[in-house]
């Protein structure tokens, strides 16, 4: 009897507890509270390595380029290039010379300045090669429809006097490609256009609009133009009319073939005088003994005459580039090479 009573009491207590638990179950969620204040930003992490085809931001080559555009407009533009493809560099021995390459550009290297230098026994810095030791490119939008570009490579040897088959001034209009001797490059070929197929011609290249020009070897007159992009021949229209204003024929004074103005019959050749070597001056060179950082000033002068495959100056006028360099990081005094055996 007593045991039955105790069991009944236990069941009643358990039932009460379960009911109590059911009454205390959570109700539906209330509305979300207001967002708290944003915390302070964390510290910047370390700079990552550049991706494929990327460049390091390290030091700078800055300065000004000053000259005259082909249309006669004077200009002076400032630049600062801070990116390089190599974050470790040093002097290295090449053919008994201490060589140093300095390269900086913008983030995609569409604009850049490169200097290839060597140090002589008197600690003077000189261009490592007569040509291609300095390369400069600067592109800038002048307005919505006009892109200004300076493309220049100086030549550090004197150029002897020569006769060119079209003057530099006239070639500003026609933009024939010139060879290393300063004359317009050409070769003999055949013409396969629709009007006069297979006629023997002189073949010329245009440097600005990707067209080839064909002049008759018999009459010297323009035969046709080939558009390399559209892959079609042009034998009429404005471009044809422009190049049809000149012809290519022999000139006794020049001792060779030159361009003539068709309307006047005047020769367009030019006697180009000897041109002094372009100039590169490095001054105020320092190297910090602790950090290894190098700094110096530079001055580059490039002639607007005697343009060929060794000297490039897109302005066709004298050009000056001045400024300073800061390596931004250590430049090693020596570079050691190891050959695996």
Counting DSSP E segments of at least 2 residues, the number of strands comes to 23
Distance between the termini: 103 Å
Instruction: Output the number of helix runs.
Output: 3
Shape: globular
Using the CA coordinates, give the radius of gyration. 36 Å
Pattern of helices and strands:
HEEEEEEEEEEHEEEEEHEEEEEEEE
Task: Flag low-confidence runs.
Answer: 1-24
Q: How would you describe the oligomerization state of the chains in this entry? A: single chain
Structural class: mainly beta
What is the helix content?
A: 10-25%
Tell me the strand percentage band: 35-45%
Q: Could you describe the largest sheet, including whether it forms a barrel?
A: 7 strands, antiparallel
Mean pLDDT: 84
Core attributes:
341 residues, globular, 5-stranded antiparallel β-sheet, mainly beta, 7-stranded antiparallel β-sheet, single chain
């Amino acid at each position: 009897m007593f045991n039955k009573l105790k069991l009944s009491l236990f069941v009643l207590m358990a039932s009460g507890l379960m009911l109590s638990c059911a009454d205390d179950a959570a109700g539906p969620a209330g509305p979300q509270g207001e967002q708290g204040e944003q915390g302070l930003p964390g510290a910047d992490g370390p700079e990552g390595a550049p991706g494929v085809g990327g460049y390091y931001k390290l030091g700078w080559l800055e300065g000004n380029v000053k000259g005259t555009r082909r249309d006669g407009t004077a200009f002076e533009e400032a630049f600062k290039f801070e990116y390089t493809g190599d974050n470790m560099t040093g002097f290295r021995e090449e053919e008994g010379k201490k060589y140093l390459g300095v390269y900086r550009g913008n983030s995609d290297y569409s604009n850049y300045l490169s200097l290839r230098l060597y140090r002589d026994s008197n600690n003077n810095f000189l261009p490592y090669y007569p040509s291609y030791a300095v390369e400069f490119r600067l592109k800038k939008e002048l307005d919505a429809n006009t892109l200004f570009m300076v493309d220049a490579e100086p030549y550090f040897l004197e150029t002897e006097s020569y006769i060119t088959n079209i003057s530099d001034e006239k070639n500003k209009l026609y933009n024939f490609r010139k060879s290393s001797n300063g004359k317009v490059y050409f070769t003999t070929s055949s013409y396969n256009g629709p009007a006069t197929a297979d006629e023997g011609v002189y073949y010329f290249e245009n440097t600005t609009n990707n067209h080839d020009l064909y002049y008759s070897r018999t009459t010297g007159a323009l035969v046709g133009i080939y558009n390399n992009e559209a892959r079609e021949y042009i034998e009429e229209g404005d471009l044809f009319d422009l190049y049809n204003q000149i012809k290519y024929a022999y000139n006794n004074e020049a001792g060779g073939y030159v361009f003539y103005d068709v309307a006047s019959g005047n020769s367009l050749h030019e006697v180009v005088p000897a041109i002094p070597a372009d100039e590169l001056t490095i001054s105020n060179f320092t190297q910090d003994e602790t950090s290894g950082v190098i700094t110096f000033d530079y001055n580059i002068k490039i002639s607007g005459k005697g343009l060929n495959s060794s000297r490039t100056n897109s302005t066709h006028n004298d050009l000056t580039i001045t400024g300073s360099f800061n390596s931004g990081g250590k430049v090693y005094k020596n570079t050691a090479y190891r050959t695996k055996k």
